[in-house]
Amino acid sequence: MSTTPETADLLTATALRREDLLHDYRLGWESRHASLAGRKEVFMGKAKFGIFGDGKELPQLAMARAFRPGDWRAGYYRDQTFMLAIGELTLQQYFAQLYANPDAEADPASAGRSMGGHFGTRLLDEDGQFQNLATSKNSSADISPTAGQMPRLVGLAYASKLFRNNPELHQFTQFSTQGNEVAFGTIGNASTSEGVFFEAINAAGVLQIPMLVSVWDDHYGISVPAEYQTTKQSISAILAGFQRDGEGQDGFEIFVVKGWDYPALIDTYQRAAEVCRTQHVPVLIHVTEVTQPQGHSTSGSHERYKSQERLGWEEEHDCLRKMREWLLVEGHASEAQLDQLENEARETVKQARTASWNAFFNPIKQERDEAVKLLDALLLETNTENELREMVSGLQFNPAPIRADMVRTVRRVLRQVRGQRSAARRDLLNWLEQAEADNADRYNSYLNSQSEQATPNIEEVPAEFARNAPPVDGREVLQACFEANFRRDPTIFAIGEDVGRIGDVNQAFAGLQAKFGELRVTDTGIRECTIVGQGIGAALRGLRPIAEVQYLDYLLYAIQILSDDLASLQYRTKGGQKAPLIVRTRGHRLEGIWHSGSPIQMILGAIRGMKLLVPRNMTQAAGFYNTLLRSDEPALVIECLNGYRLKEQIPTNVGEFTLPLGVPEVLREGSDVTVVTYGSMCRIVLDAAQQLAEVGISVEVIDVQTLLPFDTQHSIADSVRKTSRVVFADEDVPGGATSYMMQQVLDQQQAYRYLDAQPRCLSAQAHRPPYGSDGDYFSKPNAEDVFDTVYELLHEANPKQFPAIY
Q1: Closest residue by Cα to residue 401 from 671, 46, 757, 795
Q2: Sign of CA dihedral 618, 619, 624, 627
Q3: Tens-digit pLDDT profile for residues 595-619
Q4: Residue ranges of the Transketolase-like pyrimidine-binding domain (predicted)?
Q5: CA 311, 312, 317, 320: dihedral to nearest 10 degrees?
Q6: What whole-number distance in Å separates Cα of residue 299 and Cα of residue 42?
Q7: pLDDT of residue 573
């Protein structure tokens, strides 16, 4: 472990000029004044909440000096100084995010969708295509969950390893300079208590990737001090066993440096980044004795939990104060020069804050004035001045209106003049329609890709089959599909437990590591969270990963990262970033509490922004993989766990045929009842449908195929119009995905209009199925359950023709 001295001139790695030092000092004060001003803006009601990077200015300035074009950041919501220093954040943009300005030019990181302190660079052009990431300074988009940035950080660094070691990738100069990029991560000391932090650190040590993690250690996690957070109160101490034994050995390099010691920080970051970049060795820099002058956030005061002694120590060890002392002692500046820099920084921040507020608020005032003008005309034309003037005046004289105030007032006024005909009312309705469209773009757009590579734009190519093609195990269809895609696109790779040498537990990758090498078909440890993160980071960098979670039941380890990071990425950047990761797993029908999972309700609620595909067999799965690998959208594909050895034919165009998403397939036509299902339930429902046909009941069986998106053409409603009865069947818990399908069909598609009988949901029991075939039969829907549910609907309609069974 390397510990740097507190003082002495250690600027050996970079010969910083006096101008560089004074530039950093001024920039540090600009960041500090931005933090101070931001807190005031929250307390004045101009912003909702504030969390700032004060006290961490010097470490971030030092980190920025080691950060090169092509490098990446996966960080923490206090990194404003770093973002300012690398030129990827302006003070006006900083305040724009604080005010939640929904203009992507004003707040490039999130277009007002993330609270202040959540940074990111725009990786995509206006058409949704990657820009040149090898020459830009890149930041992946921040998330709030503590340590949630760590899995993605592993992937960002892992991509450098692939770009360096796989010659086939050297041609992609838009994404990398042969793996010469470092992935810089930042995290607070308290967040290192999260399990995902330790998983990511271990993964980086195993992978030996250029990942440089900075821990800003200010001794607290909100109000909880380090003695409650970390063994030995030191993350570097407890990670000492990760320190490599020497150059060429596996492990980490670990540095400890004080957050107020500017020359030591500069030296440490230069040396750490160099070893990380050249040797692809992961590095941890434990930055100690960091302060937090304003406390955790605007939600409270740190005076409530810090002693007077601690507060005094923090004031004395404020990093900007210490840098000032050092500059004076070393003769780099005079008191008057430093005073002037501080004053200039304060004025610069004031001007940026004012400009940002005006850029945010003036358009809102203009919209408000336009709405008031239309409202005034309506009141005059409808003779409702007495009844509605107070409501309109409330909007007109609101000193700080927001768009919700306008729309709320207009809707309530229109409510009062309902039924009246007037030109002013039509004008106001037109205003409302336009306002709702504009606000949908501001606040609801880009949940999914809008580029030419979005899944709806992928051309459908039908599967072709040779005459008399022999049936093979379903796994062989997938194997052939993956092999064809690996040959077509060198950016595709697969990672996961047992994926490499044995070709995954169900053999869909069998033999592919031998054909394409360990860099493209790679085993991992048992670490679902960082398997997914490894894929997210690599996808952000232009690669096409397939990350395998061995069983659907184990997706819970990774669901937080999928939900908070991947699924929200396009949305929270308003189309500024994308990570087209495919997560492959298997579930549905089998035996056992932890190997028969169908927690679809949980997944549906967690991953909006991803595609959710539930193919019934491996040929359908292959078609979906072909579509996804040509698109730029993330997806979760759930293969049927009991389908790998069922017989199918391999299409002659196994790597080329594609399936559209959101298009159900009618597996059996019928006229009496529509049964809507997916996955392994398709075979069970088809079995029951055949049995029902024998007693005179005609069942239309529909495989939805994809749940996100769901039946974009409303074809299921057309089936219900024909049959007038519907059953939704799956293996999820009661009220789970069956309820989702019912809502989509009856509510969104308005198929309730065609029903002659109560819609029915057939699901599994509320508990997970026990081990054994009997446990499966009595826990999940079986063919007899489907038969009885459908038969009962016909019995209600015609008890004479279909007498009660029981």
Answers
A1: 46
A2: positive
A3: 888 999 999 999 999 999 999 999 9
A4: 472-646
A5: 80
A6: 10
A7: 98
Read out DSSP for 161-213?
A: HHHHH-GGGTT-TTT-STT---EEEEEETGGGGSHHHHHHHHHHHHHT--EEE
DSSP-based helix, strand, coil % in the chain, nearest 5 = 45, 10, 40
Region at 168 (left for phi over 0; alpha for psi -120 to 50; beta for the rest): alpha
Output the CA torsion sign for 143, 148, 150, 155: negative
Token code pair at residue 164: 């360096």
Distance CA 524, CA 531 (A): 8
- In degrees and rounded to multiples of 5, residue 729 shows phi and psi of -130, 135
Let me know if 33 is a catalytic residue: no
Closest alpha carbon to 174 in 517, 542, 425, 638: 542
Phi, psi of 265 (to 5 degrees): -65, -45
User: Which residues lie closer than 8 Å to 15 by C-beta, 6 or more apart?
Assistant: none
Average pLDDT on 684-696 reads 98
DSSP result, 601-626: HHHHHH-BTBEEE--SSHHHHHHHHH
3-state secondary structure of 714: coil
Q: Backbone phi, then psi, for 803, in 5-degree steps?
A: -65, 155
151 token code pair: 């899995």
Question: What's the one-letter identity of residue 698?
Answer: S
State residue 524's pLDDT score: 97
Helix (H, G, I), strand (E, B) or coil at 523: strand
Q: Return d(Cα 329, Cα 322) in angstroms, integer.
A: 11
Q: What angle do CA 492, 496, 499 make, to 5 degrees?
A: 80
DSSP string, 321-334: HHHHHHHHHTTS--
Neighbouring C-beta atoms of residue 367, cutoff 10 Å: 17
190-195, Cβ contacts within 8 angstroms, sequence gap of 24 or more? 190/146, 190/220, 190/221, 190/222, 190/224, 190/226, 190/229, 190/230, 191/76, 191/146, 191/147, 191/221, 192/147, 192/229, 192/230, 192/235, 193/221, 193/229, 193/230, 194/146, 194/147, 194/150
Phi, psi of 443 (to 5 degrees): -120, -15
Backbone angles phi, psi at 537, to 5 degrees: -60, -40
Look at residue 234 in the predicted model and tell me its pLDDT.
96
For residue 1, is pLDDT > 70? no
> What is the spatial distance between Cα 426 and Cα 418, in angstroms, rounded to a whole number?
11
Whether the CB-CB separation of 303 and 296 falls below 8 Å is answered with: no
Is residue 616 within 8 A of residue 703, CB to CB? The reply is yes
What is the model's pTM? 0.96
Q: Per the structure block, which two tokens stand in for 313?
A: 């120590």
Q: How far apart are CA 555 and CA 582, in angstroms?
A: 13
Token pair 């430093």 is at which residue? 338
Query: For the CA atoms of 67, 73, 79, 83, what is the dihedral angle to 10 degrees?
Result: 60
pLDDT at 360 over 60: yes
Selecting among 33, 317, 595, 767, the annotated active-site residue is 595
75: tokens are: 């960080």
Strand-pair category, 635-640 with 611-613: parallel
Q: What angle, 0 to 180 degrees and rounded to 10, lies between the N-to-C axes of helices 57-66 and 18-43?
A: 130
| Angstrom distances, CA of residue 271 to CA of 4, 266, 422 | 11, 9, 74
